[in-house]
Automatic annotation (TrEMBL):
It comes from the Bacteria. It catalyses: L-proline + a quinone = (S)-1-pyrroline-5-carboxylate + a quinol + H(+). Pathway: Amino-acid degradation; L-proline degradation into L-glutamate; L-glutamate from L-proline: step 1/2. Residues 45-299 form the Proline dehydrogenase domain. Its EC number is 1.5.5.2. This is proline dehydrogenase. Keywords: FAD, Flavoprotein, Nucleotide-binding, Oxidoreductase, Proline metabolism. InterPro entries: FAD-linked_oxidoreductase-like, PRODH_bac_arc, Proline_DH_dom, Proline_oxidase. Its cofactor is FAD. The keyword Coiled coil does not apply. It holds the Pfam family Pro_dh.
Length: 308
């Protein structure tokens, strides 16, 4: 399986240098990351929302090494919020954040990440939108969930992400599927050991359905993060069985993947949110997109060969 190999490469400085230097890389990266600055991304936001889509914005970058970098990440999100305020789009454009980018892995990282993310959540609430805390590798999750719980005391709309490939996730889902919660369910995109995570696709998919049923039957707001046609169909069936109408849940997909499906779901009356990343520190995000789906890797390889 190439997925684990690619995920390992996402942490390799040597592979980062090789791939970043390839002439074709920027062309392919642009498929998934449509800009480096807020100025680049505003026209994308305007176009997608005009098409009836909603967005969650991610300023890419996670492997920070100093408190100053963490503060810079915080300020990047605050600058984004400043621009979103002028667009007056309310909850149609929210934000996703990785707590590693806010200093979670540094000394005293839990408190540092909470201190950095809180002003972002406050600023988002002030313009009528919210923030979702992205899940990262399993060693970070207890800290993420604790920060999520703390933020929800003042900002109950703050969301979080759970990953179906982890054994713990069904238990987490039962705890989170409560009134007012917002939970995005994804399969998972980090290299995890067999001691904590399912390794086979069919096991991950079955776990996804089990967890999604828990969320749909709960009283929170499920966010279905998948491009898999079968899981999208199952999600609609589970929503109907739970008595949910469109608007009582939403679909989320990545920018650059299955764009026609984004528009189809929105045209059918579903809430369809596009996860849209931008920024200069794109390498880790890009490599996980390649690992998630063989078609993405084939696209990259074909592009490199055709430009070679």
């Amino acid at each position: 399986m190439l997925g684990p190999v690619i995920l390992a490469a996402s942490r390799s400085d040597r592979m980062r240098r090789v791939i970043s230097a390839a002439p074709v890389t920027k062309q392919v990266v642009d498929r998934f990351i449509p800009g480096e600055t807020v100025d680049d991304i505003v026209p994308i936001i305007e176009r997608l929302t005009a098409d009836g889509l909603e967005l969650t914005m991610d300023v890419v970058g996670e492997d920070i090494t100093t408190p100053e970098q963490a503060a810079h990440a915080r300020d990047a999100y605050l600058a984004l919020i400043g621009r979103l305020k002028a667009l007056d789009l309310g909850e149609r454009v929210e934000m996703s954040v990785k707590l590693s980018m806010f200093g979670q892995a540094l000394d005293g990282g839990h408190e540092l990440a909470l201190a950095n993310v809180r002003p972002v959540v406050e600023a988002a609430a002030a313009i009528g939108t919210t923030v979702t805390l992205d899940a990262e590798d399993h060693t970070t999750l207890d800290s993420m969930f604790a920060i999520h719980e703390e933020l929800r005391k003042d900002f109950p709309q703050t969301g979080c992400v759970i990953q179906s490939y982890l054994f713990r996730t069904e238990t987490d889902a039962r705890r989170l599927a409560a009134s007012g919660s917002r939970v995005r369910l994804v399969k998972g995109a980090y290299k995890e050991p067999a001691e904590v995570a399912y390794q086979q696709k069919h096991e991950i998919d079955k776990a996804y359905v089990r967890v999604l049923r828990i969320l749909m039957e709960g009283t929170g707001y499920p966010m279905i993060g998948s491009h898999d046609p079968r899981l999208i169909s199952i999600g609609q069936e589970l929503a109907r069985a739970a008595g949910r109408k469109p608007g009582d849940y939403e679909f989320q997909m990545l920018y650059g993947i299955r764009g026609d499906e984004h528009l189809r779901l929105a045209a059918e009356g579903h809430r369809m949110r596009v996860y849209t990343a931008y920024g200069t520190d794109w390498y880790g995000y890009f490599m996980r997109r390649l690992a998630e789906k063989p078609a993405n890797l084939r696209f990259f390889v074909r592009s490199m060969i055709s430009k070679g």
